[in-house]
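Re: that chain you flagged

S.,

Sorry for the slow reply, it's been a week of failed gels. I finally had a moment to sit down with the sequence you sent. For the record, here it is as I used it:
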Amino acid sequence: MKAKELLNLEPGKPERIENLEEDMVNLHEVWSELHKIWQIVEEPKDQTVAQVPIKKLETSISEARQKINELPAKFSTYAPVDAMKEKL
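Prediction finished late last night. Pasting the structure tokens below so you have them in one place:
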């Protein structure tokens, strides 16, 4: 507080820090959920194309789309969710 006074800066609003903390927690949750969804898509990647049945790929992508649509509404405001939807 004294440093801000010496520099002629206004004291910050604690609400802003709380909002930033909440946003950081939400962003961590978003990335955790997207990681789980991406693992579904990446699962067949370890196999050769000839070994992966087309039906399995379709099922994986369908499951990933379903999971991303089931994410909480608060996650839909984050750009990584939109980017994942576009990829799927």
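What I noticed first: The two ends are 49 Å apart (CA to CA).

Talk soon,
D.
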